[in-house]
Amino acid sequence: MAVDNLASALGSPGKFQMILYILLCCNTFFVAWNHLGMAFMGAKTKHHCRVGNTTDINEVVPLFKKGGKKEWDGCKLFVNGSTKEKQSCQNGWTYYLKGREQTIISEWDLVCDDAYKASLATTIYFCGVLVGGLVFGTLSDKFGRRPVLLFCLYSPSVLGILMFLIRDYVAFVILRFILGFVLQGLQAAFYITIVELFALKYRSKVGTVQVIFWAGGVMLTALIAFVIQDWKYIQLFITLTTLLQIGLIWFLPESFRWLIAQKRFDKAEAVVIKIVKFNNLEFPQDIFDDTVEKNKADEKTPTDSKKYTIIDLFRFRVLRKRSVILACIWFSTSIGYYGISLNISSLAGNKYLNFFIGGLLELMAYILTVFVTERFGRRKPLCAYLLMGSIMNIAAGVLSEKA
């Protein structure tokens, strides 16, 4: 393609592309922190009924065995000193929290009959992620990558301040839905921008290396939660830090590929000039003119004027089969990944250390994958990873039942 020749002429890759690539990849941190932050902000918290000034809690709160250990019932009290009749907690709950630790569970008493609300908050957040993925992909095609990316990058800071100030569960859930909505828009926009920034031969590498930043974000999530501990301040930190990318307002250009596709050749030329100047290269006039001419010629071809929609993914048998398979893979791996990550507090040991080690292992896996895919392609490693993941999940379930 002519536009790919133009991308190669701007540096292979140059300083501009690499600096912008690193800055855009840093946005992965913000997405990872907010996607996974509920592992700590909504962590399961041990509790029992508040008993006031009672001297012996064993006379009021029932005991039961769990995993060979005795624990106080988190939702029941004995009635009038009886050891048989029980009633629900009458005066709230006492939570087992260390240091400055506070969670949304202790904030709004999301236990017993309301225990489902903690998981519901996470579910609604990822509903926002789903809707954001559907909406912002279309918006970035219509209005450009740059405005969508910048809007989705800076709006979380406003949402974070609002979540810090509110004291209502329903408002929190609504704001978290919007946060998931815009963060998925951010992820989609910066990934598209990264891919369109480089020549075709670099696309697979930059896409794979980008997920290494995700693993770094996972490890930093554990560190942030360990240092801050209070959910309100964790949420404020992981959203306000998006303002550290304020420099992108001036440094980030619109995608020249998108501008050329939209027939906005003057603006595309200005972007190309900015890139070659930064890379100390000459403006590739002949290549740019050839790209423009071929784009104009393609416009005159009737078949190229067709507008494609998601329905076209299911119009042809081969494309339909691949789309369904990939959708199932994304669905199953996402459930497995987030199901494990967001329930890390249920594992034995230190939840912060467990989470950090999980991120470290993830980092090692991503680095290994860069070399594995270079050697074996994508399909064979994908099948092997899915098979190993399935075996490990089944084994973990069986072993936990026996424990």
UniProtKB/TrEMBL annotation:
MF terms (GO), sorted A to Z: transmembrane transporter activity
One Pfam family it belongs to: Sugar_tr
InterPro entries listed in its UniProt record: MFS_dom (IPR020846), MFS_sugar_transport-like (IPR005828), MFS_trans_sf (IPR036259)
UniProt subcellular location: Membrane
Keywords recorded for this protein, A-Z: Membrane, Transmembrane, Transmembrane helix
GO cellular component: membrane
Keyword Transmembrane helix: yes
Membrane topology summary: Multi-pass membrane protein
Source species, domain of life: Eukaryota
Protein name per the record: Organic cation transporter -like
Organism, as annotated: Paramuricea clavata
